[in-house]
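Interim report to the steering committee. The following record documents the input for VWA domain-containing protein (736 residues).
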Amino acid sequence: MNLKWLAPFLAFLIVFIFPGLSGVICSDSQDSDLFYLLIDTSGSLHDWISPTGVAGKGTDPDDLRVTAARILVDLLYDTDCVGISMFATESKIIHPVAELTVENRKSLKDALRQTKVATGFTNINSALIEAKDQLEKWNGTGSKYVVLFSDGIPSKSWYDDPATTQSLMDEALGNATYLASRGISLYCIALSPDPSMEQFRSFMREIAEISVDHTGKGGFELVVSPQDLNQAFLDIFWSVKRQALTEIQSDRAKITIGPYTDRLSILFTRENSQNKSTVINPKAEKVEPTAFDEYYELYSFSTTAQDLKGEWEVLRPQASSASYWILQDLNFNISLTQPEADSNLIKGGKPSELYAELSAKNGKTILDPADFQVDFWVLESTDLQAQSTINPIQGELKSESSQSLIYQARWTPPPDFNLNRCYLMAVASLSPQYEILLKSQPVPVNLFPRPVVNLTLSGENGQPVSSFNIKLKPDQEKSSFEYTVRLQATSKLASPVKIELSENLRSSLKISGPNQFSPTEELASYKIVLQTTRSLPPGERLEGTIKFVPLDEDTEVKPSSFSLYYHHESKWDQVWAFLKIFFVIFAAAILLGLGIWFYFWRQKPAPSGRILQIKENVPLRSNSDGTVSILREEDIKRRFNLRERKLLSRLFHPNYITFGPKGADFFIPELRNKLFKIEAVIYQEGRRRKIGVRPVGQRGMTVARRGIHLVLLDGEVFEVRNDSGASPPIFWVYKS
């Protein structure tokens, strides 16, 4: 059976019946806790109609909040104290703080009936102030808790604008902060069926987070349906009192009780007065249940036997639909001791040590490590029902004594962990046969990425520089040099940064003044003064680095170092610098002159397609830029040396004609009516390629690899084509 249906069956439960103390003054015992309930009774809880005629459905028309609060009062211990205020447009005390004697418990539950009214607006701030006044009057040494129930955002009229609403929320958050700073823990229950009420949900969650930040305790319960209000109030009870609850679902159930239980309650319902259940203790004795409040026809059995350890048995009538629960008050606590609530910063990517302490409540209990397993959970929020966002991290036993067990684990936020804020919790499990799980209070943790300190460097003139560049004239004497470094950290977790000189600089330079800075998230400027420690004569040169080293290895500095160049010039340095400039200018002048000569003294190329008249035995060569060169006869001897031929043809024989990508037309009168040969040698990867020759205007082409013999007739013009696609080809013409 789901726990949220517990309320309709278990409205009023007696956990244990102890002789009550007379009077209404709370005990100052260390075991006594104070609970102050703030119950919303605004008009939105029941069906409503606005002044403009707009109708709305109530969030809790059946007043199930009253039943849930009454159950909480029933379950609290006899030594605890409870006070109640209800609030709508104004706050009102309906029962002063009183210890939970039998008489006061009934009086408190009767007072809760007054909260069935639903009218007015939602003055949460007034309720928090009322709780502050009541709680500050209590001088007990136990813990103080405020349980705040509401179904809407703070309001004071139908016509509140966003600015007014924000002001009311800020005021309430301020009072919540005041309560938490005084050690008062706040548990918030938000009844919010409408998912669009995210502002209200965030507001209630923020109150809980303020409490956790200051006290290490607190919680937030989001309730979508009023039928789940029971579960919300019970979650708070189990969170504060650290009790274990087990549901029984069989007609003949056996429950093994271990050595760490102080009190035992067996809670069950009956269908009618004749339908009773039976409880048998470990001594095989039948125990009759005790009715507490017949108003809801709910019953409970409780025992305070000295030795509860052993096997208990619960028998229920056949075909019974009654529900059974085992409630154990454990005599040990589990708490997360590191990180602490007031020291909760964890650097992203760095392993963090987690410690939990499992301690006995009294000096009689002996803790056996073999009975326990402690895990660490990571929660997304303060929601009491939140699940672990990662697999539980199992703790290892670090140290032990009869009254205390210390467990340790190491947690590193994984790379895909996208929460800037989470909550850590220690969870203790007993041996499997006991089936008990006990949780500590969640501790908030703020996760920060690796801090980075960004640096910029400026010289004496205030201009940004990329290095420490110091240059002195021969007649210049200077022993100190001032720079400005600007630091800004991406996180307040950034460690201080110190300045270190590389080893080769330490014998000549030092940092004068502070050499360590504490960066903040604000941009800050610091002076760095470099001072010489010995005489540096003209001609002296120094090269090295100045490092900016974080004291904490988790902090990163960008850039982490700057180069340093120191040069005290001599007269020879100045002469050499002058000569270098002279030689550069001289070489540039020569190259410029050659370029001008080459440009103005070469002949301009002939137009493409021009008929050439070339003397007998004069070779032609195609150049890589699409031109044909005319070479001298002596150059034919070097025709196979392409590099030399190309250079000579360029420098000494600028006479050339335009030659298309595949050849040129030519006419040689001296070879008329004579047999001659046209040959092309195309150098490409050491192989010869073919050449084609044909008369101009004809389609056919005579193709040969070595050469073509032709007889040139009067007026006949031939064209030479390089159809192989290779370049550059070499052409020459000679007698056959």
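The CA atoms of residues 36 and 83 lie 5 Å apart. The committee is asked to note this result when reviewing the revised timeline.
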